[in-house]
From TrEMBL:
<protein>
    <recommendedName>
        <fullName>Tc1-like transposase DDE domain-containing protein</fullName>
    </recommendedName>
</protein>
<dbReference type="InterPro" id="IPR038717">
    <property type="entry name" value="Tc1-like_DDE_dom"/>
</dbReference>
<dbReference type="Pfam" id="PF13358">
    <property type="entry name" value="DDE_3"/>
</dbReference>
<dbReference type="InterPro" id="IPR036397">
    <property type="entry name" value="RNaseH_sf"/>
</dbReference>
<feature type="domain" description="Tc1-like transposase DDE">
    <location>
        <begin position="6"/>
        <end position="63"/>
    </location>
</feature>
<dbReference type="GO" id="GO:0003676">
    <property type="term" value="F:nucleic acid binding"/>
</dbReference>
Amino acid sequence: MRFKPDLAPAHAVKSTKDWFTKKQLEVLAWPANSPDLNVIENLWAIVKRNIRDRKPTTLDQLKQNIATAWEAVSAETCDKLVKSMPRRLQAVIQAKGAATKY
């Protein structure tokens, strides 16, 4: 099994590396400044904008706004994000791994 690191500091500590070794998980080499091709990041951005626009002032409001924001994400939006992957990959290839508009 393979693991794609997200470059979180916790994934670089010795105890975590030892755990991956013990579990026989291969950690893929991943450049520190690689383009983010994970469409969930775009989905999170949509949800965060929706929440921020509502300007919650209490924890209860924030919880409700999060639920409302997730419910507002349409299947069409998710489908568009997934279907954008070939364009994203092509942009990364053309940029030779450098930053893209994605």
